[in-house]
Amino acid sequence: MAAKEGKAETGDKKSKNGADGPKKETRLGLEVSKSTNFSDWYSQVLTKGEMIEYYDVSGCYILRPWAFAIWEEMQRFLDKEIKKTGVKNCYFPMFVSQSALEKEKAHIEDFAPEVAWVTHSGQSKMAEPIAIRPTSETIMYPAYAKWIKSHRDLPIKLNQWNNVVRWEFKHPQPFIRNREFLWQEGHSAFATKAEAEEEVLKILDIYARVYEDLLAIPVVKGRKTEKEKFAGGDYTTTVEAFVPDSGRGIQGATSHHLGQNFSKMFDITFEDAKTLEKSYVYQNSWGLSTRPIGAMVMIHGDEKGLVLPPRVADAQVVIVPCGINAKMTDEQKKSLFDGCSTIETTLQESSIRVECDLRDNYSPGWKFNHWELKGVPLRIDVGPRDLAKEEVVAVRRDTGEKVTLPLSNLADKIKGLLDEIHASLLSKAKEKLESHKKLVDSWEEFTNALDEKNIMLAPFCGAEACEDIIKKESAQEEVAGAKGPSMGAKSLCIPFEQPAGITGKMCIHPKCGQLAKFYTLFGRSY
Ligand code: 86X
How far is the CA of 135 from the centre of ligand 1 (A)? Predict the structure, then answer.
């Protein structure tokens, strides 16, 4: 079966099966199982589903139209929502001078190995090497210092949709860990801390809605611990998702309150309205990348391939003409195809994104597999007998369920079905998240739960040094269990929604000896 794979993948339409007959069935499906070989499954689902193509620079991937369309839907939503909060879009250069980059010295040091530098033009060495942006604080804030003079210049709320480069050395994975990736980065400056803090949460809410309302992925909102926060800021808020098949948490997006740290570094000041004194602005920064696309694939995909949540799918519906046989006349075939096209137009007029697969060199069975692999949420099968009865059969990608729908008010019915699919994907993912989120009170429970691919809500003192130990020792536990070296648990976040009963509890790590301050979500993570 796998031997024919190469041919099928190229979509070779000039088959030798004859001019009239449909192309002979070829195997284009997945060769590995999600449950037994998750990482190969992920890679196959992305390439065979035509989301990405691998590239000869490690950590960089080609985003094919099927994936880029998902990003565009996310952009469309996010761009609209952030503009509602008064944010404006802009564009800053992708290059940073060494001197500007080093203004951020303190925490740049942690990141320094990841910065990519341009050192040559052609064969000649440049006088000053220039860095490619890993993020734009050092590029934008010198301009903020120029633009902000008085309280009347505030707030400034800017966003850019751009690419950034971080030359990471950890194992790269498409969407999850890229050396170049697309994102938006928002940077705002306010006169008061209160205004800034309000924005931090407003943006985090929008990020949560990208996950839940578009991608059908439930998230846990919370604050990062001291160890995991952005070192340049006062605190970091985050949305965290869970990938059941790997048992790992995944940071979804972050919204930071920077306090006055950067305004002091870059001298971003204004004259206070009342006191007429020079004050440092309060800043936020926040970002969401293409990473959630990877989470979406991992969470919803199944043994047959991608399962796209309807609100981001490039094609929400695919129409496949069925029941064509050798005895059919050209007129009969034409009327079937016309029937399909009419349905396509009807759905398009109701703003449903629809693909009509009238290719006659592929059989219906081949098309079913193809669109299943690509994860189209709904398939509409249209045969001559269906048309005669003025109905069609709709097949759900997520459940395989078939429903017969009358042609009258088809668009409304389809919209209802697409909403049902969204709700059902979200509720299944929620069930998985909730059943794998274990409330633990002892170190033994903690490590046992970790080994069973769960994430743990544990009482925690909050100290960075203690978190280092938790990570180290939870990794060692598994070596002892003879499973080979394995990743330790990191903190994912301190959930805003806290379980009751923290008062008087001790920190989860037995040697810590401190009182716990809050429940913290721990787990292996991407
Ligand atoms: C931290 C902070 C922040 C704006 C966001 O998380 C959202 C959007 N920026 C980014 N960060 C760095 O500052 C950083 C700096 C360098 Cl030099 C680097 F190579 C990698 C980095 N990664 C993250």
Answer: 5
Query: Which amino acid would we find at residue 152?
Result: R
Q: Which of 92, 94, 97, 111 to mutate to test the pocket of ligand 1 (most atoms within 8 A of CB)?
A: 111
3-state SS of 206-242?
A: HHHHHHHHHCCCCCEEEECCCCCCCCCCCEEEEEEEE
Instruction: Give the type of residue at 509.
Output: H
Residues with CB under 6 A from ligand 1: 108, 111, 114-115, 134-135, 166, 185, 230, 254, 256, 285-287
Q: What are the φ and ψ backbone dihedral angles of 244, each rounded to 5 degrees?
A: -60, -40
Distance, CA of 521 to CA of 429 (rounded, Å): 18
Q: In 218-329, which ranges are continuous DSSP H helix?
A: 261-266, 291-300
d(C-alpha 446, C-alpha 464), whole Å: 18
Are 279 and 156 in contact by the 8 Å Cβ rule? The answer is: no
Residues 6+ apart with CB under 8 A from 476: 488
pLDDT in tens, 256-291: 999 999 999 999 999 988 888 999 999 999 999 999
Cα-trace Rg, the chain: 26
Q: pLDDT tens across 425-451, in order?
A: 999 999 999 999 999 999 999 999 999
Query: Could you tell me the CA-to-CA distances from 366 to 1, 19, 28, 89, 488 in Å, in that order?
Result: 14, 17, 9, 44, 44
Write the CB contacts of 73 (distance below 8 Å, at least 6 apart in sequence). 214, 311, 312
